[in-house]
Design a protein that fits this description.
This protein is mostly beta strands. The protein is about 0% helix and about 50% strand. The strands form two sheets. Strands 2-10-9-4-5-6 form a six-stranded mixed beta sheet, with no helix packed on it. Strand 7 and strand 8 form a beta hairpin. The model has no long low-confidence stretch (mean pLDDT about 95).
């Protein structure tokens, strides 16, 4: 059974940084394409970043140059380093194994302006 646990969210001032973590279990993590998404209350969930098994990364345009995805397959963990945060980055952030329908509980990121 796929299980995902996100952590690392919090309240930060605009321009600040946070690092999110997502630990997965119940599937072959090292072979999994891992994705980050975010959702603002009342809006659709949107894709933010993808971290491929070998570490290649892809980002939505709004976070390019500010967010960096990485992973440690020995820890079954994927990370999202978020720098130069903006108020519009405020959302609940989720990770997901690409192709899966399972979501973690998410972690709240709030950026104050």
């Amino acid at each position: 059974q796929v299980h995902l646990v996100e952590s690392g969210g919090g309240l930060v001032e605009a321009g600040g940084s946070l690092r999110l973590s997502c630990t997965g279990s119940g599937f072959p993590f090292s072979e999994a394409i891992m994705t980050w998404h975010r959702q603002v209350q009342g809006k659709a969930r949107e894709w933010v970043a993808t971290v491929a098994p070998g570490g290649a990364t892809f980002y939505t345009d709004s976070v390019k140059g500010r967010f960096t995805g990485s992973r440690d397959n020995t820890l079954n963990t994927v990370y999202l380093q978020m720098n130069s945060l903006k108020s519009e980055d405020t959302a609940v952030y989720y990770c997901q194994e690409y192709g899966s329908t399972t979501w973690g509980q998410g972690t709240q990121v709030t950026v104050s302006s």
